[in-house]
């Protein structure tokens, strides 16, 4: 009990000493995303006591749920500049066209929008060993997580990692970067100047922390100039899970319960994932 309290205190101190939060986006900017506003993803569950009791009776949460998943819309950013993402959901049978029902089909790259990578994404030996998204450890994908602000003038280098002072024992970290301020996930055109891990930043994380889940706010955990090399470092051992393209706009830095559930896409090295934070 005392040990748990000490860890919590250490986490809180680390959060307090983290760089200041970037200026919150203005209401005007939020309104520029007609699909859904940042606020819409946040809801308070069970305000009336009766409702709360009903939820608790069913084992539901009374915490505040923050959706950190981007909506899968046709204009999600494409990773390759100029690449078309196309419609993701298409009506295959439509009542307007005389069908008795509406039936949609889903078509998308598995690394589009908010998604996870499996070790086989970059490492052929892991791919051959069958380490697909269906083998990802749900215990890593679900549990306490720390949301930190990376200094805005840098990629996630060894120096930047060191400056974040993430305590040992922390296993899940969501890194908010300049990408969130630049609203890169809201731009259809892929922008390869995004911030991500450099090779030395990835190596520093592997050597000096216990982090197994790495959340980032653009499509790749690795900076474009270190696209393969940083992935290779992370996937040397198949125990690190990158969660990419998270929607970290307007969330306070701090400790949350994180829940990420990828689809059980057998044989795939990537999957869309629904991630939420509970405060
Ligand atoms: C079925 O799809 C059509 C568009 O083709 C739409 O107008 C209609 O509202 C849909 N019906 C249902 C039940 O979703
Ligand atoms: C991060 O690295 C990319 C190249 O991968 C570069 O274009 C970008 O300017 C860097 N960002 C910062 C903030 O240093």
Quick overview:
This protein is of the alpha+beta class and 279 residues long. It has a domain at 89-278: Glucose Oxidase, domain 1.
What's the Cα radius of gyration? 19 Å
What is the helix tally? 9
Going by CATH, the architecture of the domain at 89-278 would be 3-Layer(bba) Sandwich
Briefly note the CATH topology name of the domain at 89-278: Glucose Oxidase, domain 1
Polypeptide structure, described:
- The chain has 279 residues and is an alpha+beta fold.
- The protein has a domain at 89-278: Glucose Oxidase, domain 1.
- Helix content is 24%, strand content 21%.
- It has helices at residues 2-17, 27-31, 49-57, 124-128, 138-141, 158-164, 178-181, 199-208, 227-234, and strands at residues 42-44, 64-67, 89-93, 103-106, 115-117, 142-149, 172-176, 213-216, 241-244, 254-262, 270-278.
- Helix 6 (158-164) packs across helix 8 and helix 8 runs parallel beside helix 9.
- The longest helix is centred in the first third of the chain and has 16 residues, at 2-17.
- It is globular and about 60 Å long.
- The relative contact order is 0.20.
- Bound molecules: 2-acetamido-2-deoxy-beta-D-glucopyranose (NAG) (2 copies).
- Residues 91, 94-96, 102 line the site of one 2-acetamido-2-deoxy-beta-D-glucopyranose (NAG).
């Amino acid at each position: 009990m005392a040990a748990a309290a000490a860890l919590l205190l250490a986490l809180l101190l680390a959060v307090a000493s983290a760089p200041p939060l970037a200026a919150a986006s203005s209401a005007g900017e939020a309104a520029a995303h007609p699909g859904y506003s940042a606020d819409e993803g946040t809801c308070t569950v069970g305000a009336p006591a009766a409702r709360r009791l009903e939820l608790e009776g069913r084992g539901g949460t009374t915490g505040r749920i923050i959706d950190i998943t981007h909506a899968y819309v046709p204009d999600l950013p494409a990773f390759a500049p100029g690449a078309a993402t196309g419609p993701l959901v298409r009506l295959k049978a439509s009542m307007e066209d005389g069908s008795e029902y509406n039936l949609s089909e889903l078509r998308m790259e598995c690394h589009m929008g908010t998604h996870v990578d499996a070790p086989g994404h970059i490492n052929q030996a892991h791919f051959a060993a069958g380490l697909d998204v269906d083998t990802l450890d749900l215990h890593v994908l679900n549990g306490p997580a720390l949301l930190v602000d990376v200094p805005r003038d840098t990629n996630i280098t060894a120096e930047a990692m060191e400056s974040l002072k993430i305590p040992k024992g922390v296993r899940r970290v969501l890194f908010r970067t300049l990408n969130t301020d630049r609203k890169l996930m809201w731009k259809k055109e892929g922008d390869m100047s995004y911030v991500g891990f450099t090779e030395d930043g990835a190596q520093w994380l592997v050597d000096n922390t216990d982090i197994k889940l790495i959340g980032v706010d653009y499509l790749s955990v690795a900076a474009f100039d270190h696209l393969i090399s940083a992935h290779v470092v992370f996937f040397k051992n198949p125990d690190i899970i990158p969660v990419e393209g998270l929607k970290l706009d307007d969330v306070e830095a701090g400790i949350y319960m994180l829940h990420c559930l990828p689809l059980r896409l057998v044989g795939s090295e990537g999957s869309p994932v629904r991630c939420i934070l509970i405060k």
